[in-house]
């Protein structure tokens, strides 16, 4: 359940952050990717979210073995050349019988890495390990083809690094997929004169010239209500406060074949003078609901009309949206936002 | 505005799919990553969502140049060796003065790729192109270090491929980031005897032994309401129907330092006999709200208690959640789900 999940995440989140800070000291501020047990549980409970045919535990430092320096910390019979010992990669176990390779202490030469990776895989197989996590930073890109050659696959990447994974067991893999959704917002700003703030975007899409609500994506780790306020300010110069999240739309197969959630937020204007963002916005103005809905664009799409109906019903106080409530969990003191309809909860 | 955005996405979505199918024929079913103009607009409107200091247009086939075969389709003075012509990579323009390299026809040798990539970058710079998109499939991993060497950076990856980008202009880059959120669900299933369906998970986190609602992540392209029904069925064997999405929680910096949205769904049970998923669930049962909230676990966390309060208020008909409404846009006939509180909209 949500609360349970939140608690898991928060309690592990603290550990996560502590570990990240500690490890990052080893690597010029580049923190290793760690994952929280709850998220992992959360993810493995969704079987078909597996990456290809393969489920790995999420790396977690709960049982980390402290690595030695130099990318070599053990000797064992080399399966490739039994007559000589083989180097093993520094690594630590996660909480799911998986292994996290220490990116901070990989052998510097490609040959040494290839040899150590091969020997390490043999060792991990003997130990019946499951998911192997290998994070390679941009400056280690020459090691990517070697890892692929040894059977690793791409998992996810961001500027500066790529994460690869290897699933050992002869059973379906449950490595969690990388994040699946982008979070968009639309700001419905209506003033005391019953005028709605709308923009015309500079875009080459089919709706050029249509008056519409300001929209955008939230930033990394940004709250939905904050993102709506920011987008409206950036596109129109209008200051607002968040009132309610009145509806959201879920659509699939957009950018990168991923999915998209668009949250429609009702905002109260705190200013009236419009200053548009020349780079993105062609024009902006205050418009009546009748003029907005009067555009042919809206007469042709049910979703468009419904969303404006919902926003106007909210304005006319005959509709209840979700308000935002920031709650802190005692488990890690982490602030999280709960969106719900608050009006009647006092009755409980 | 949301409706506008939806329309953009849908109208481009159709084109996207058509192009994907066509391109995939060139490459053993591996479709090139294409992006829809709306998503791109949606993303660039969020400036701080830029990847590092770098914003590139989203590749889009609207103005694609048809590539010739063999990974070479033009000649121009080679900036590296002016005396001889240089090969250029097959590519096409996107709608934002960017370039999408054709992964299906890259030179097979690393040296030829390096030479063609260098010459192509010179050509694109002369043409004042902006964002360059280079998708490399797993079997092309030997080209990754070469692209990095030439100044490309990782953008995102999934099993089987990695996408790299290069930003040419001397201005802030607005390349959109990869998806930022995982979408989780929690199923609140309560029967006519006022008993709630709860589980004990097999996990090593701090909440071992706690009775909680079934939770999980939705699958790729799965609806929230469908994911809730599936998770409850997988974990407990109980069949349900979706009633309302009563609240959602937004938390940041979870798996991969990304964010997490957990939607709490009220479901109506259609069966009562529990069959647990032995791999994930330790135990499951029907429990009274008093016994659920009586656990110390819940007395220690405000978020946990609030969510159960909301769910019980919904059950007691003194709370209004969002219902799911599937709407089709005439622009591409694509089904999208709009979640909102429907009770009062008839008043409009």
Automatic annotation (TrEMBL), chains A, B:
Keywords: Hydrolase, Metal-binding
Residue ranges of coiled coil: none
Mitochondrion found in the keyword field: no
Molecular function GO labels: hydrolase activity; metal ion binding
Keyword Hydrolase in record: yes
Domain Nudix hydrolase: 180-309
Name of the protein this chain belongs to: Nudix hydrolase domain-containing protein
Species name: Cinchona calisaya
Taxonomic classification: Eukaryota, Viridiplantae, Streptophyta, Embryophyta, Tracheophyta
């Amino acid at each position: 359940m949500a609360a349970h999940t939140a608690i898991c995440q928060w309690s592990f989140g603290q550990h996560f952050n502590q570990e990240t800070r500690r490890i990052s000291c080893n690597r010029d501020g580049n923190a290793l990717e760690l994952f929280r047990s709850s998220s992992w549980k959360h993810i493995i409970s969704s079987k078909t979210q597996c990456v290809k045919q393969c489920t790995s535990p999420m790396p977690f430092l709960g049982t980390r073995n402290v690595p030695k320096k130099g990318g070599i910390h053990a000797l064992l019979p080399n399966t490739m050349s039994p007559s000589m010992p083989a180097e093993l990669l520094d690594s630590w176990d996660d909480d799911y019988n998986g292994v996290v390779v220490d990116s901070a202490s990989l052998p510097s030469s490609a040959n040494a890495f290839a040899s150590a990776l091969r020997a390490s895989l043999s060792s991990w197989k003997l130990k019946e390990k499951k998911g192997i996590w290998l994070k390679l930073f941009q400056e280690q890109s020459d090691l990517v083809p070697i890892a692929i050659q040894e059977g690793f696959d791409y998992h996810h990447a961001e500027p500066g690094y790529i994460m690869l994974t290897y699933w050992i067991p002869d059973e379906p893999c449950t490595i969690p997929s990388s994040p699946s959704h982008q979070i968009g917002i639309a700001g419905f700003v209506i003033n005391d004169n019953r005028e709605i703030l709308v923009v015309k975007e500079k875009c080459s899409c089919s709706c050029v010239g249509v008056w519409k609500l300001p929209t955008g994506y939230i930033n990394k780790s940004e709250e939905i209500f904050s993102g709506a306020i920011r987008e409206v300010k950036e596109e129109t110069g209008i200051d607002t406060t968040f009132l309610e999240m009145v509806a959201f739309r879920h659509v699939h197969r957009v950018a990168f074949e991923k999915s998209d959630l668009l949250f429609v937020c009702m905002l109260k204007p705190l200013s009236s003078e419009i200053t548009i963002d020349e780079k993105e916005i062609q024009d902006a103005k205050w418009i009546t609901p009748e003029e907005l809905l009067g555009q042919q664009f809206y007469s042709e799409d049910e979703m468009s009309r419904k969303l404006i109906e919902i926003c106007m019903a909210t304005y006319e106080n005959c509709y209840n949206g979700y308000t935002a409530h920031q709650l802190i969990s005692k488990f890690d003191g982490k602030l999280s936002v709960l969106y719900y309809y608050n009006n009647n909860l006092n009755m409980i």
